[in-house]
Amino acid sequence: MNIRGVIFDKDGTLFDFQSTWGIWTAQVLARIAGSDEALLQQLAEALGYDTQTRRVQPGSVIVAATPMEIAAVVKDCIPALSQTQICDWLNEEAKTAPQVLVTDLHRLTAELRRINLGLCVMTNDAEAPARAHLASVQASDLFDFVIGSDSGFGAKPQAAPLLALADKMEIPAAACVMVGDSTHDLRAGRAAGMRAVAVLTGLAEADELAPLADAVLPDVSHLPAWISAQNS
């Protein structure tokens, strides 16, 4: 079946992961810990973050977890606040995270529209920050639908949010491809009966992603050529 729809992950797929979240995490940890260096290091260790290099480490909860899951980790370090309070604060802070695009999204989506594809974004981030991030690079109107882990459809690696987007686009799941940088993305795509394409602009290496992927691409700019080849 020809590919008719594309569902993109956001962080590490449309946006370079370390350039965005590596810098943002340093700022957030500093705000939480203030002058308490011990708390800063405790948070960094719990979250899988290297304060010296200002880089998120492979396997970090930051990579693919939902904001509520990240909030649960933070709460273990600052039990005076509720998980919901922490999550709400993180979502507000996330809206201002500096966004560094992997490629020109206007050019990429124009190429994909020329071959008549539906385009969506499904992120384990919350929906409001996701929309803020796309708006910050003038990309709000480039996608048919954007949903997050709090949009009522579940989170990756569950199939449900991807199936919901296929339904919204009125495209069979088997005619869609999930594009992402993590095993969560690829497992969700497989579970939904979609093709799965991995990109190497997150933290996972090719050998980790390849067993779950129909293709491993350097970045999303290579996607139009791959889809055209599949549809030929």
3D architecture notes:
This protein starts with a strand and ends with a helix. Strands 5-4-1-6-7-8 form a 6-stranded parallel β-sheet, with helices on both faces. The chain is an alpha/beta fold and 232 residues long. It has helices at residues 17-33, 37-47, 61-64, 67-77, 83-94, 105-114, 127-136, 160-169, 183-191, 206-209, 223-231; strands spanning 5-8, 49-50, 55-56, 118-122, 145-147, 176-180, 195-199, 215-217.
Q: What key phrases describe this protein's structure?
A:
alpha/beta; six-stranded parallel β-sheet; two-stranded antiparallel ribbon; 8 strands; 12% strand
- Tell me the number of strands: 8
* Strand order in space, largest sheet: 5-4-1-6-7-8
Rg from alpha-carbon coordinates = 17 Å
Proportion of strand residues: 5-15%
Tell me roughly what share of residues is in helical segments: 40-55%
* First and last CA, distance: 11 Å
Global shape: elongated
Describe the main β-sheet briefly. 6 strands, parallel
Q: Which sequence of SSEs, written as H and E, runs from N to C? A: EHHEEHHHHEHEHEHEHEH
Classify the secondary structure makeup into a structural class. alpha/beta
Low-confidence stretches: none
What integer is the average pLDDT?
95
Put simply, the count of helices is: 11
Topology overview:
Layout: E1 5-8, H1 17-33, H2 37-47, E2 49-50, E3 55-56, H3 61-64, H4 67-77, H5 83-94, H6 105-114, E4 118-122, H7 127-136, E5 145-147, H8 160-169, E6 176-180, H9 183-191, E7 195-199, H10 206-209, E8 215-217, H11 223-231
Parallel strand pairs: 1-4, 1-6, 4-5, 6-7, 7-8
Antiparallel strand pairs: 2-3
Helix pairs in contact: 1-2, 2-4, 4-5
